[in-house]
């Protein structure tokens, strides 16, 4: 198994992180998770662009181009013979004596590796339970930063109560999940929080919204209130590794009729089809 360290392919046990890396000490860095289907990095351009955007937002000047990054990640996937799996990539601001402030000219540290992913088929077919909790994160959730402490705390709470995800609520408004975007269906309209600083604009989210528009289903990028969430006909979540998963129980109460809803199922089918198309185009 090889890993990428600042552009070089190394054996995993040869990769070393400095104990004064600012990512390690401050979470001062950014990341992406990309899915690999049949050896193809799905949505690579979109993930690479978001990675560059996150870096720019926190003032990290990445020392490579989007094309270099894509090429290196493809090489990593090939080298490790990944057919179905994922790639994790992160860049930290660099290594320096521990002080909150930093000097210009630090060398960003970029690492990437591949990992196996099991498609959550059971969850996709039968739906999952979710809990709700307060969204007490900072106000720049649009940046895919390494600072995931609150997400970790609340995901752990969900996990310990046997739920798959926790839906976060800020001032009575549904924002997103701890590691997914959240959608509610009401009167046949799919509603999801607009892409602003309160949520991460998921790559899966963007693909889903495009599919909804293409199929002529009704869509509103408008905040959903907690009340509306509890009365939704259908709820589903999306992320790179989850794809589209129905939420059939919320805080112990059935969502709609308590089984995956028709719109969610149609969307799941459309999403699988779009993956197949993307893979076909990339490998031809
Ligand atoms: N998480 N919102 C949050 C807070 C997330 O962490 C994620 C993804 C998403 C969905 O984004 P995308 O569709 O681009 O995966 C939304 C990744 C998968 C993770 O941290 O593992």
Structural account:
This protein has 284 residues and is an alpha+beta fold. It folds into two domains: 2-115, D-amino Acid Aminotransferase, Chain A, domain 1 (2-Layer Sandwich), CATH 3.30.470; 121-279, D-amino Acid Aminotransferase, Chain A, domain 2, CATH 3.20.10. The protein is 32% helix and 30% strand. It has helices at 22-26, 44-57, 66-79, 121-126, 149-160, 203-214, 226-230, 262-283, and strands at 2-5, 8-11, 29-37, 40-41, 85-92, 109-116, 128-134, 165-170, 173-177, 181-186, 189-192, 218-221, 224-225, 234-239, 243-250, 253-254. Strands 7, 8, 9, 10, 11, 12, 13, 14, 15 and 16 form a ten-stranded mixed β-sheet that branches. Helix 6 crosses helix 8. The longest helix is centred in the last third of the chain and has 22 residues, at 262-283. The two termini are 27 Å apart. The mean pLDDT is 97. The protein binds N-(5'-phosphopyridoxyl)-D-alanine. The site of N-(5'-phosphopyridoxyl)-D-alanine has 15 residues, from helix 6 and strand 14. Keywords: Aminotransferase, Pyridoxal phosphate, Transferase.
């Amino acid at each position: 198994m090889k890993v990428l360290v600042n552009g070089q392919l190394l054996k995993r046990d040869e990769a070393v992180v400095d104990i004064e890396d600012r990512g390690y000490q401050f979470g001062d860095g950014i990341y992406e998770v990309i899915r690999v289907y049949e050896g193809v990095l799905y949505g690579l351009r979109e993930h690479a662009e978001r990675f560059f955007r996150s870096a720019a937002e926190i003032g990290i000047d990445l020392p490579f181009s989007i094309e270099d990054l894509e090429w290196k990640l493809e090489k990593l996937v090939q080298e490790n013979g990944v057919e179905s799996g994922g790639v994790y990539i992160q860049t930290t601001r660099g290594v320096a004596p521990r002080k909150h402030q930093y000097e210009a000219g630090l060398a960003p540290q970029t690492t990437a590796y591949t990992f196996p992913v099991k498609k959550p088929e059971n969850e996709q077919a039968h739906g999952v339970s979710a809990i709700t909790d307060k969204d007490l994160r900072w106000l720049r959730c649009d940046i895919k930063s390494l600072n995931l402490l609150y997400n970790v705390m609340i995901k752990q709470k969900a996990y310990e109560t046997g739920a798959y995800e926790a839906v976060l609520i800020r001032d009575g408004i549904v924002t997103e999940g701890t590691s997914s975007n959240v959608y509610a269906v009401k009167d046949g309209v799919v509603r999801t929080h607009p892409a602003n600083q309160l949520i991460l604009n998921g790559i899966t989210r963007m693909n889903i919204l495009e599919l909804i528009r293409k199929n002529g289903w009704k869509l509103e990028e408008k905040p959903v209130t907690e009340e509306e969430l509890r009365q939704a006909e259908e709820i589903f979540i999306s992320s790179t590794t989850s794809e589209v998963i129905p939420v059939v129980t919320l805080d112990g109460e059935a969502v709609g009729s308590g089984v995956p809803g028709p719109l969610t199922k149609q969307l799941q089918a459309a999403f699988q089809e779009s993956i197949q198309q993307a893979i076909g185009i990339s490998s031809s």
